[in-house]
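@channel sequence for tomorrow's demo:
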Amino acid sequence: MIKAALFDLDGVVFDTEPQYTLFWGNECRRYHPDKPGLEHRIKGQTLVEIYDQCFSGELADAQPAITQRLNDFEAQMQLDYVAGFESFVHILREQGVKTAVVTSSNKQKMESVYRQHPEFKSIFDAILTSEDFDESKPSPDCYIKGARRFGVKPEDCIVFEDSFNGLKSGRASGAFVIGLATTNSPESIAPYADVVVKDFHDPILSQYIK
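structure tokens (generated this afternoon):
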């Protein structure tokens, strides 16, 4: 019996990953022209983690400019729900399943979400951001804390993820992991998920709602 559904944000709730890939692709080509495809390897990481791994040392001075470009980008990016999400999460809540966003995004990013979608907070019982976690994905810390927020075990939860780091995080927590092929191919994420779906219209999801 599923007691809680824990959703990543970008690529799961919102179909934003292609936009972030463009943004970070530009930044990576600007500062790391010798590392093609780097933008794909940093998916699912917090901004702090991206800076530590890719923009530290001699590039540390570039962080304020990158942050400003990112803030400007996020303020105008399109936040469209992944197909079928709204109706799916509504059914879950009607059936008493707790719902939470568990995201590597920070509170500043979430303010942009709330401005574009005033209804967003009412969709979820809890919203956990990067400030709530001690460790970033692929650590299971965020999903363990997401389950704990509802007083349940990770094994009683379904995690919805799209990135490799997020999928690894969900699996390491002990939750049942559903991978959305919104960002990466179904074949590439299949080894890290219990089930793979294209979006929330996939009929296989009916197995997890009454």
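heads up for whoever presents: The first helix runs from residue 17 to 31.
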